[in-house]
Amino acid sequence: MGETVPVFQRVAIIGLGLIGGSLASAIKKHNLAAMVVGADQSQSDLAYALKNRVIDEAAASVAEAVKDADLVVIAVPVRATEAVLRQVKPALGAQALLTDVGSTKASFVNAVRSVFGERLPACIPGHPIAGSEKSGIAAANPELFARHKVILTPPDDVDATQLARLSALWEGCGARVLTMAVEYHDEVLAATSHLPHLIAFSLVDTLAGEDENLDIFRYAAGGFRDFTRIAASDPVMWHDIFLSNQQAVLRVIDHFTHDLDQLRTAIAEQDGATLLRVFSRAKAAREHFSKMLSGQAYVTTNKQKQVTFNVQPGGKMTGDIRVPGDKSMSHRSIMLGALADGITEVNGFLEGEDSLATLQAFRDMGVTIEGPDNGFVRIRGVGIDGLQAPRGPLYLGNSGTAMRLFSGLLAPQAFDSELTGDASLTGRPMGRVADPLRSMGAIIETAEGGRPPLKIKGGQVLEGFHYDMPIASAQVKSCLLLAGLFAKGTTSVTEPAPTRDHTERMLAGFGYPVKRTGATASVVGGGRLAASAIDVPADISSAAFFLVAATIAEGSDLTLRHVGMNPTRVGVINILRLMGANIEVSNEREAGGEPVADLRVTSAKLHGIDIPEAEVPLAIDEFPVLFIAATCAEGKTVLRGAEELRVKESDRIQVMADGLEQLGVHTTVTPDGIEIVGGQTLGGGTVDSHGDHRIAMAFAMAALRAEGAITITDCANVATSFPGFVELAQQTGIHITAEGA
Ligand code: S3P
């Protein structure tokens, strides 16, 4: 790192144990202070520190160390803090900043208050989340904090410059600085650090006291060693921590004891289902530990990462492929499977981030779900009334479908719930579901403008009602039908134009009657669902990219297998055929209540059309790639009546128009659509996908006809709907690579 300007002039470190000593040596190593002075009650430790150049100067007393220091770090055992602060007080300069490194923060703040009274010094408590089961100055290590977190708990009226300096000091030691409130820190640490230490101490002590203890330790395998490593930590320090963070630790011990007791009962009663539920939920949580800590869905790709697609121009599409499972059906299979009586087995489940977020949310509500394993999921249904209160907000990632369907399912539950999502989802309108649900008697709070998070009050009895949907939305329809399962009487929804009917079909597949009269679907509340087997077909929305690609790239011949051909989803095929595409449908059959078929597509010369408005809801997710088809067609293509595109994962009309403009293609944007004159030169360039998976994939296809390379930024969200997209695109003939994936 090699800072040249020290952040502080004179840093006094009071207490040269593992943490104090390591901090002193890190400050010196990275030249973060002009001078590091140490004080310690052990003369031999002090001498050791001086001799080994951990510090520049050894002070004879605390007061001597503190005098003229602009930063004073208290690094003594938590319970010794108050006595040390009394020695600090008389020598502490008016401009000096006081901090500490203890594991509990309320106790430090209280000690400062009780010692300094009204005239509080500038003080920012700190806690490096680093350590070792070793203790003492001999274990001091200047790299101890590198790549570790340091939590600072500044007061509300903190001096921003002081906070920036202290942060810079820790960052200079290689640490990542987080700030949070004192109370929150103590709660979090009680759960994540203090409780595990307590359990490790207690377990080793219990086993060491058993008669066969020698044998127990002799045969102890790696698991025991891993699990109990922290039981070798410093007893004095930990005894201090537990006594100082008493209330938060007691709360988490009670919680743990209660859960442990439940496991004991499950074992005593041979209740395998409970064991399986708890263990599989824990396994998923552990496997996706870091995701869980950062409040993301438990998924395999890292959204924090910036993924960029680089696509070389040209190519033709060939091969015989199956794209991943249908997203809409995957969500619904988990929802209905969870609410059913019995075990539902799903094949072809989409292992994308959106549907995985739904799966995890049901685990969080007490449902045992095994898998997914290569598209196979086994759901142990809890029955229509069997969901349990989740422990915290349900995080639904990027998925509008999940949030809208969940709101219908959760509004009638006995427990409160909160639905959250990523930045894109947080900007999307939820009033369209919250308002009609409120008419049924639900109590739902949204953020400003009807945006997420949704806070749903449990314990409400919903009344069935009739809703004339102002917009053609399958999500709104599904939300209300799902709420209707729990409502009194009949819930009916009339749609202004046909929208996807997977909810109705799947409910029927689970033995729940859904009545259809013209444009109205209705359910009567109070029934039950019977577990079912579900075969999820390949997603036509994912197939759409390849349909367009093979159409626009000369010399292509591509087969797509087992594609879902629900009549409410085939708008993309209808539109492409109107434009002149060659799409052969064969092997038409039914799988799990849904029509499926194989599709063969060969290159064709397209011509522009006025897209029939009736097709819009049937192709609602496919427009980004249809705009690429229109760009490659001869003549003008006009889209109208598609204002819904503006509130998808991005404003798909504007974002597509902007991207095309970057590639040299001019379009005319209207409030509810776009006009694209085909045949313009499609150049190379850089396009921002705005984190919208379908925009990213659409522009990847455009490269087949572009004159230069296309770079597409912000593509990590392709994983929400199409895991393995890049590999499949490469395999079929697109010259694409992904950076940062
Ligand atoms: C979906 C419905 C559509 C679609 C979305 C999935 C569903 O949304 O855009 O990707 O699974 O019900 P709207 O019905 O709100 O248009």
Structural class given helices, strands, pairing? alpha/beta
User: Helical proportion?
Assistant: 25-40%
Q: Strand count, sense and closure of the main sheet?
A: 6 strands, parallel
The average pLDDT score comes to: 93
Molecules bound to protein: shikimate-3-phosphate
Q: How many structural domains? A: 4
Count every helix, treating DSSP H or I runs of 4 or more residues as helices.
27
At CATH level 2, the architecture of the largest domain is Alpha-beta prism
Oligomerization state of this entry?
A: single chain
The share of residues in extended strands comes to 15-25%
Estimate the global geometry from the Cα principal axes: globular
CATH superfamily of the largest domain: Enolpyruvate transferase domain
What is the strand tally?
A: 32
Which strand order spans the largest sheet, edge to edge or round the barrel? 3-2-1-4-5-6
- Spans where pLDDT lies below 50 across 5 or more residues: 292-303
The gyration radius over C-alpha positions equals 31 Å
Give a concise summary.
The chain is α/β, with parallel strands linked by helices and 741 residues long. It folds into 4 domains: 8-180, NAD(P)-binding Rossmann-like Domain (Rossmann fold, 3-Layer(aba) Sandwich); 187-270, 6-phosphogluconate dehydrogenase C-terminal fold (Orthogonal Bundle); 308-314 and 538-739, UDP-n-acetylglucosamine1-carboxyvinyl-transferase, Chain (Alpha-beta prism); 327-535, Enolpyruvate transferase domain (UDP-n-acetylglucosamine1-carboxyvinyl-transferase, Chain, Alpha-beta prism), CATH 3.65.10. The protein has a 6-stranded parallel sheet, with helices on both faces. Strands 30-31-10-32 form a 4-stranded mixed sheet.
